[in-house]
Backbone:
C-alpha cells in the first residue's frame, strides 16, 4: 500500500515517522529544498503545558496528550529538549482572576503541578522580571525545543524506517478518479497512492481545494529578536504576558541552545511568502518584551526574523477526511500549539489510516524491525555542556575531521558538517547545514565559517562552488569565478588571483 504525505514540516514528518512503523510505502513530499523550511523553522520553540486550550477542542486534547511524551521522544530522536517551565505574569487583581481561570482549565485538562505564585515566589524564580509584577501562573511541564531539529529528527527516523523524502517536489494537483483521490501531480512527475495526507501548512487550504474542500488559511506573521548567548541567562522560564484574543503576546524566553529570544507580535498578512521584518514591528517586540523584563538589552541581537502561522476562523485544528473525495485526509490550521501537539496528531492520523484501510478490506501490519532511535552524532558543544571536553580527543583520534573547528561561534567541527551532508535527509544548502549543526548560527552569522561551509559542501557533493546555495533555488552564494569577470581597462596580466578563486 502507498501513502503520500504532502508537506515536510513538523506535522508531516511526525506522521511519516509514525506510519513508518507499518509495512507501507510512504512518500513525504516537500516543495522546499529541505524539511522544516516553512513554519517549523521559525517559531518560539515552546512545548506548551496545555492550560490554554479548551479540553473539548483538538488543540486542547492534542497538546495535553503530547506534552508528557516529549522526554522519551527527544531521547529517541536525539533532539535537544528542556522542561524549563513557563510563567504567565499578572500585574493586578484582575489578572489574578484570569490566572485562576487558566489554572482551573488546565486542571480540568489533567495538567498537574500548576501553581499561582505570589510576588515573592515569582521573583525567586525570575529576579529580572518587572518589579511591578504581582502574580504568575507557573506550569512546570512546559518546555523548550528546537523545532527544526525535531522535524529533521522525525524525518531522518522515517527514512531509516523505509520512508522516502522527496524535496523540491511541489504538488500541482490531485489525481482524482471516480470520486477518489488516487495520487498527486507534481513538478517532478506523478505519484500514485492509496491514501493522500494533506499536511501542507500554510498551503493546506490550497491542496484541500484541489479536492473541492473549502478552507481559508489566514497567514499570521510573528517577528522575533534573537540575542547572543551572553544574554541567555537573563530569564530561566518561558515568560508570557496576559494573552489577548489575538495572540499569547510578546514572550521572553531562553532557547534550548542557550540564547535569549523575544517575540512574536501577530499581524495578519496576505502573502504566504512574506517573511520580511519591519522596523516598526521589531520595535513593538522590544516594547512588549520590556514590559516583562525591563533589562532586555538594546544590543546583543545576532539576528531578527519572522515566521508565519496558518490560522483558521475557527481558531482550532481541522483534522478529518475530505468531505468531497475519498482517500484524502486534510490537516488545516495547525498553528500554535501545533508543535506541542505533533506526537498526538501523528498518532491520531495513524488511527485514521488504520481504520480507513480496514473499512476498505485492507490491513496494514506493524514491522518487526522498526528502528526507534536515531544514531547519536558527535557534537563538540554537547561535550562542552557536560564538562567532558577531554573526551572529545577520543572522537578526534577516530576521525581527524572532528579536530578542525569550522564555526568558531558555535564550536562546530568539520566532521559534524560532513555528518549533516550524509544524514538520511541530507543537508544540501548552507541553511540546511545550519539547522543540523548550528554552524553559522552564532554572533558572526556565518562571517567566518560561511566560506568554509561552502567549500565543504562543494567537495562533499562534488559540485562547482558556484552551484552552492544558501537555501536552494536562486540563492547562490557566489556570482562567478574571478577570471570570468569582465574588468574594463585592466590588462589580463594585471589581474590578481588564481583562476579557480571564486568571489
Residues:
Amino acid at each position: 500500500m502507498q501513502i503520500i504525505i504532502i508537506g515536510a514540516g513538523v506535522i508531516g514528518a511526525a506522521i511519516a515517522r509514525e506510519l513508518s512503523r507499518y509495512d507501507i510505502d510512504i512518500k513525504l513530499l516537500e516543495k522546499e529544498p529541505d524539511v522544516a523550511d516553512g513554519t517549523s523553522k521559525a517559531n518560539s520553540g515552546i512545548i506548551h503545558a496545555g492550560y490554554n486550550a479548551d479540553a473539548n477542542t483538538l488543540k486542547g486534547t492534542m497538546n495535553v496528550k503530547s506534552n508528557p511524551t516529549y522526554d522519551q521522544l527527544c531521547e529517541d530522536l536525539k533532539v535537544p529538549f528542556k522542561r524549563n517551565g513557563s510563567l504567565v505574569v499578572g500585574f493586578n487583581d484582575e489578572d489574578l482572576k484570569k490566572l485562576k481561570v487558566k489554572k482551573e482549565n488546565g486542571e480540568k485538562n489533567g495538567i498537574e503541578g500548576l501553581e499561582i505564585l505570589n510576588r515573592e515566589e515569582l521573583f525567586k524564580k525570575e529576579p529580572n522580571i518587572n518589579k511591578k509584577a504581582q502574580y504568575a501562573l507557573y506550569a512546570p511541564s512546559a518546555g523548550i525545543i528546537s523545532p527544526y531539529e525535531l522535524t529533521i529528527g522525525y524525518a531522518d527516523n522515517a527514512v531509516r524506517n523505509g520512508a522516502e523524502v522527496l524535496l523540491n517536489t511541489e504538488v500541482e494537483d490531485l489525481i482524482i478518479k471516480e470520486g477518489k483521490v488516487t495520487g498527486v501531480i507534481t513538478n517532478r512527475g506523478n505519484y500514485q497512492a492509496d491514501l493522500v495526507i494533506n499536511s501542507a501548512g500554510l498551503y493546506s487550504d490550497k491542496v484541500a481545494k484541489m479536492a473541492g474542500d473549502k478552507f481559508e488559511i489566514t497567514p499570521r506573521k510573528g517577528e522575533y529578536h534573537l540575542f547572543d548567548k551572553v544574554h541567555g541567562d537573563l530569564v530561566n522560564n518561558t515568560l508570557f504576558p496576559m494573552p489577548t484574543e489575538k495572540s499569547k503576546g510578546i514572550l521572553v524566553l531562553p532557547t534550548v541552545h542557550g540564547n535569549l529570544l523575544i517575540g512574536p507580535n501577530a499581524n495578519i498578512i496576505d502573502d504566504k511568502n512574506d517573511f520580511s521584518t519591519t522596523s516598526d514591528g521589531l520595535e513593538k517586540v522590544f516594547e512588549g518584551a520590556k514590559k516583562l523584563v525591563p533589562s532586555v538589552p538594546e544590543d546583543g541581537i545576532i539576528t531578527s526574523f519572522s515566521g508565519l502561522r496558518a490560522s483558521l476562523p475557527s481558531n482550532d485544528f481541522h483534522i478529518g477526511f475530505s468531505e468531497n473525495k475519498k482517500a484524502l485526509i486534510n490537516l488545516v490550521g495547525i498553528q500554535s500549539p501545533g508543535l506541542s501537539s505533533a506526537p498526538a496528531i501523528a498518532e491520531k492520523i495513524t488511527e485514521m489510516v488504520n481504520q480507513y484501510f480496514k473499512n476498505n478490506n485492507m490491513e496494514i501490519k506493524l514491522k518487526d524491525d522498526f528502528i526507534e532511535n536515531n544514531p547519536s552524532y558527535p557534537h563538540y558543544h554537547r561535550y562542552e555542556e557536560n564538562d567532558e571536553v577531554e573526551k572529545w580527543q577520543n572522537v578526534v583520534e577516530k576521525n581527524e575531521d572532528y579536530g578542525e573547528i569550522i564555526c568558531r561561534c558555535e564550536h562546530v567541527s568539520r566532521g559534524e558538517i560532513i555528518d549533516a551532508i550524509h544524514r538520511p535527509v541530507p543537508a544540501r544548502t548552507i541553511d540546511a547545514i545550519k539547522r543540523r549543526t548550528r554552524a553559522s548560527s552564532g554572533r558572526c552569522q556565518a562571517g567566518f565559517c560561511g566560506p568554509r561551509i561552502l567549500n565543504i559542501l562543494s567537495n562533499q557533493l562534488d559540485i562547482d562552488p558556484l552551484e552552492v546555495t544558501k537555501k536552494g533555488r536562486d540563492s547562490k552564494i557566489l556570482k562567478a569565478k574571478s577570471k570570468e569577470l569582465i574588468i574594463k581597462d585592466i590588462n589580463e596580466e594585471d589581474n590578481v588571483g588564481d583562476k579557480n578563486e571564486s568571489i
In short: The longest strand covers residues 301-311. DSSP finds 14 helices and 23 strands in the chain. Confidence is low (pLDDT under 50) at residues 488-503.
